[in-house]
Design brief:
The chain is an alpha+beta fold. The chain has 3 domains: 139 residues, no CATH class; 74 residues; 179 residues, endopeptidase fold (from Nostoc punctiforme) (Alpha-Beta Complex). It is 49% helix and 6% strand. It contains 16 helices and 6 strands. Strands 1-6-2-3-4-5 form a 6-stranded antiparallel sheet. Strand 3 and strand 4 form a beta hairpin. Helix 1 packs across helix 8, helix 5 runs antiparallel to helix 7 and helix 8 packs antiparallel against helix 9. The longest helix is centred in the N-terminal third of the chain and has 25 residues.
Length: 412
């Protein structure tokens, strides 16, 4: 989780210590609320520790600071220190920081740490039984796996965070803010909308092809680093670190099998983003032709995006860290720069060699579509108007596009 750790900590503390908190002064309750929010994000401060140690921050769930035994031990240490230090506080400080209030703060620290880990356990993974076991536990992570192309902020996980944040605002405003006429109505509308959004993301998750956690990649880690070079494989143009980029080094037999498996899933697809609905479906994980090819490479542990990005950035005259480009166009430019593109020879037998990326070019020399060749002259491609990924024959796509195809370019 990203945004909901502090709200979860606050809500958990309010529920677990409700009776004790109600007996505090208003100023004490305000301070406790602020502290519970801060305590909720405290476990993620291991990002700074890992940065200092020059360990990739994406591994922080594997670090001992993200284990229950660490936070319980730290809480016991603070309890012990409080008993040692408290007798030395002056009378004025003790009037505000009473023993009961101090115990409530210390309990809030423990509740915050454990609720943070519980939230990570819900949608991520943690080493729950450290140091007795290094196995990573999770609850929902693999049940509602996000799309490789949409990321966290379009996932069911983020929708769950939005609901938690909505409940937090309702609870916090009711306790600390002035009562307004429309408070309850607005709060219920916000919670209702967040529930509707959750239902929508769950629906889209079930309809789309989602495989961003690779099999055989040291699962359950989301950020796998096969060559241990501190660079995540999804950002590494040379995953196995052998000096050959992922496109050139890929196992194309495996890629063909991956593409066929994706097609056989019959999941949601968008052939062409012509309207707002198409863009929404793509935003939430629908496949198109490029995504079909990219996913097949990704499942081979050969992501093509880092290769394309590296090629594009090196081609720029004015360098920039922030770049935005058309992956299909740059992929074609990449093959053209290597003199790898040929016009399809329709006299060959078989006409299509399996495992080859191709581009359909119109009379204006623009890319109409792309895809990958499979066995028996079939191809992996999503045609305009399609809503489900499906298998196509070479004859079928030529018939569909007709004379609009000027050139059928294929990688040699």
């Amino acid at each position: 989780m990203f945004l909901a750790h502090a709200p979860i900590s606050y809500l958990a503390n309010e529920v677990i210590q409700k009776k004790k908190i109600s007996g505090l002064k208003n100023s004490q309750q305000v301070l406790l609320a602020i502290l519970s929010l801060l305590f909720g994000i405290l476990p993620d401060f291991d990002f700074f520790i890992l940065s200092i140690l020059k360990i990739p921050t994406y591994t922080h769930h594997n670090f001992f600071t993200h284990t229950p035994i660490y936070w319980i031990g730290l809480w016991l240490l603070l309890v012990l220190l409080s008993k040692v230090v408290y007798p030395y506080l002056n009378t004025k400080t003790k009037q505000f920081l009473t023993k009961d209030f101090l115990n409530i703060i210390l309990n809030s620290f423990l509740i915050a740490g454990l609720s943070h880990l519980l939230a990570d356990l819900l949608v991520g993974n943690i080493v729950l039984l450290f140091p007795f076991s290094g196995f990573h536990f999770t609850i929902l992570k693999y049940l509602l796996e996000p799309s490789y192309f949409t990321g966290y902020f379009s996932s069911v996980y983020f929708a769950i965070e939005i609901i938690i944040i909505a409940i937090f605002f309702f609870s916090f405003s009711k306790k600390f803010l002035k009562k307004q006429r429309w408070d309850n109505i607005l709060a219920y509308i916000l919670i209702s909308l967040s529930v509707i959004y959750l239902c929508f993301t769950v629906f889209m998750n079930l309809q789309t092809y989602n495989n961003s956690f690779l099999e055989g990649s040291n699962k359950p880690y989301i950020d796998y680093d096969v060559d241990f070079d501190t660079l995540r494989d999804v950002e590494d143009w040379d995953v196995d670190n052998d000096g050959i980029n992922n496109i050139e080094d890929a196992d194309y037999e495996n890629i063909i099998e991956n593409a066929q498996k994706i097609i056989d899933s019959n999941k949601m697809a968008v052939g062409e983003a012509e309207n707002f609905t198409d863009k929404i479906l793509l935003h939430y994980g629908a496949l198109n032709s490029y995504r079909l090819v990219s996913q097949a490479f990704y499942e081979n542990l050969s992501p093509i995006e880092p290769v394309i990005k590296d090629f594009y950035i090196k081609s720029l005259e004015e360098k920039s860290y922030l770049v935005n480009f058309d992956y299909v166009e740059i992929l074609r430019n990449y093959f053209q720069s290597n003199n790898s593109l040929l016009d399809l020879n329709f006299q060959a037998n078989p006409i299509l060699v399996p495992g080859k990326i191709f581009f359909l070019i119109d009379t204006n020399r623009e890319i109409m579509n792309m895809g990958i060749t499979l066995y028996d002259n079939s191809v992996g491609i999503v045609l305009p108007g399609e809503r489900k990924i499906q298998r196509h024959s070479l004859e079928g796509i030529i018939k569909f596009y007709g004379d609009t195809i000027s050139t059928f370019q294929i990688v040699q």
